[in-house]
Amino acid sequence: MKKERAIFAGGCFWCMVHPFDQYPGIIKVISGYTGGHVVNPTYEQVSSGTTGHTEAVQIDFDAEVISYPELLQIYWQVTDPTDAMGQFQDRGDNYRPVIFVANDQQRQQASASRDALAASGRFKDPIVTKVEPVQPFYPAEEYHQDFYRKDPSRMQMEEAGGREAFIKRYWSKK
């Protein structure tokens, strides 16, 4: 096994776990907060918009089974890379789309992937997803972990809030 880690922000972390969790090679997906200036923030603090954090997922994966570029492809399909101030029904800086990179290789792969998406013509608006260095990641409270399994009906409501329509519009037919 070749264990590696990726950190992606793309709206509510509840909705970011399941798309990654279902693939072979994914070891663990943790909901949490990153990119801010408060040590070990709470959900309430992050939601207030005063900590600078964004909701994100930390993905531990076996790079011999699933590659970082494959994770990037999944990421692009479940986030709106043209919306800098939130994702779908989730609005605010704490829901901004960011790929947090741990090293030069991840930076190069993330930037190349973003550039390829921009050149594809799939979106009429510019791609605004940021590529930033990894910052401390703080796991969210336990009730946020694996939320799609804990409350499937609530997750269905969250997904219906825009992410499903986005996927159908931009990815299902192309």
TrEMBL record:
A molecular function annotated in GO for this UniProt entry is: peptide-methionine (S)-S-oxide reductase activity
Q: Catalytic positions? A: 12
Catalytic activity annotation: L-methionyl-[protein] + [thioredoxin]-disulfide + H2O = L-methionyl-(S)-S-oxide-[protein] + [thioredoxin]-dithiol; [thioredoxin]-disulfide + L-methionine + H2O = L-methionine (S)-S-oxide + [thioredoxin]-dithiol
Q: Which Pfam families match?
A: PMSR
Q: Which UniProt keywords apply?
A: Oxidoreductase
**Which stretches make up the Peptide methionine sulphoxide reductase MsrA domain?**
6-155
**Family annotation (InterPro entries):** Met_Sox_Rdtase_MsrA_dom, Met_Sox_Rdtase_MsrA_sf
Enzyme class name? oxidoreductase
Cross-referenced Gene3D superfamilies = Peptide methionine sulphoxide reductase MsrA (3.30.1060.10)
Q: What is its EC number?
A: 1.8.4.11
Superkingdom of origin organism? Bacteria
Q: What does this protein do?
A: Has an important function as a repair enzyme for proteins that have been inactivated by oxidation. Catalyzes the reversible oxidation-reduction of methionine sulfoxide in proteins to methionine.
Which NCBIfam families does the UniProt entry name for this protein? msrA
UniProt record similarity statement = Belongs to the MsrA Met sulfoxide reductase family.
What name goes with this protein?
A: Peptide methionine sulfoxide reductase MsrA
Species of the source: Lapidilactobacillus gannanensis
Q: Gene behind this chain?
A: msrA
